[in-house]
Amino acid sequence: MQVVLSPDQMRDVEAAAMGSGRVTGAELMARAGAAVVAAAQARWPELAAAPGRAVVLAGQGGNGGDGYVVARLLAERGWEVNVFALGPPKGDADAMAAAWGGAPRPFEALEPEDLRGAALVIDALFGLGLGRPVSAAVGRALGLAQEAGARLVAVDILSGLSAETGQVLTEGPFPEAPADLTVTFAAPKLGHVLAPGAALSGPLVVADIGLGPWLPEEGAVRLAGPGGIATKAQGHKYEHGHLMVFAGGVGRGGAARLAARGGLRIGAGAVTIAVPPAALQENAARLDAIMLRKAAGAEEAAALLDDPRINALVLGPGLGVQRAAELLPVALGRGCPAVLDADALTALAEDESLRAQLHARCVLTPHAGEFARLCPDLAEELAAGGSKLAATRAAAARLGAVLLLKGPDTVIADPAGRAAISAAAGEGAVPWLATAGAGDVLAGIIGGLLARGWDPFAAAASAAWAHQAAARHVGPGLIAEDLPEALPAVLRSLA
Length: 495
Description:
The chain is an alpha/beta fold. It folds into two domains: about 5-220, YjeF N-terminal domain (Rossmann fold, 3-Layer(aba) Sandwich); about 235-495, UDP-N-acetylmuramoyl-L-alanine:D-glutamate ligase, CATH 3.40.1190. It has 21 helices and 18 strands. The strands form two sheets. The chain has an eleven-stranded mixed β-sheet with strand order 1-9-18-17-16-15-14-13-10-11-12, with helices on both faces. Strands 4-3-2-5-6-7-8 form a seven-stranded parallel β-sheet. Helix 7 (about 135-145) links the parallel strand 5 and strand 6 (about 150-155). The model has no long low-confidence stretch (mean pLDDT about 95).
């Protein structure tokens, strides 16, 4: 899985590279500016064919230095370039401004007519170091560029976005439309994959400027990926695990059936749904490859779980809160991998004694509302502009289980602090996943991977990736029933 860096980690990478003596800060700046020009011309080949007019918005630090490199390279290609600067460039940026050789104008002097007819507006104002709200003038300038019809290209990250949290940090209005292109270096940053930064960054290009040898391996956040979900050895069905999904009463079985179908499609060797006696007939009419067993309450559930072939559980979808509270002690007491979703999360939130039984082989899959009931203090911090990554890590550590916090920026963390993000934004957005039952399928996919013997953290991360990939395969009009049926195509594309 690809690493995702915080601003501090990126600074450490750059410092290590320069400390090695193999590259200087000026050389990195020159490579970064050249990468921005190359990325823009690759996305819009017509810009390489005929020079146009560009406006560069330049800060005083390294991001501004990248912008001055862009200004020089475009000018050398025959472009008319105007630079609007926040102030005098500092450090290596000063040398890049001198190499450009033009006379920048004050940023405060930028007017709408300066942007009319510009083919490119390069946002090189703040970059990764933003830790405080910027003035309303920044959001105004970006908005004016978009209104003028220019292609807005962000260097590292759109100014006004936190590269740490993805939150907007401005004192005034901020554009609702994303950048036309964001070019960052070495690795994506947290602000590129956490909402709302993930959407506002627009298409993201990660340019190689020679920092690969210094990227962290241990402790880094990763982008969720498929892992080995398409790899399955020959063998008997029970060698690939037996997933049990607990279902609710009459008229409530649809969610459990969706979860079971997801588990079966992702490769669990066998899947059984356990239902109250009154719901047997209803579920039997809807199931073929998925098996069906009776579990009236905790005693019968415990007897079913005595089967040593059952090695993973899903509890919650359509279960009912009362039934979830009754079955959770039995399920958790077995210590086997378990996915807890929906009504099981509500039961946990209402009963501290149940939360105390959680263990590291559990995967909790809350949406924002369920997370607020489980960890109200962390949810409040998140609502106040805090980091979704930090909140998810804190919740996983507190609960002693893997936690998958759903959203377009799904974050997965385990109690030890490992974390991954499955982002669905920009060209990879899947808004049609916001449909009833989609989360039930995700729970089942995780459960299926657990049944196959996967580590809970890896199962949650790869399941989140597969869930989004299946949604992209189906496209608009998707309903939850489509997701399991799209998984074979996703797996086939990986084989």
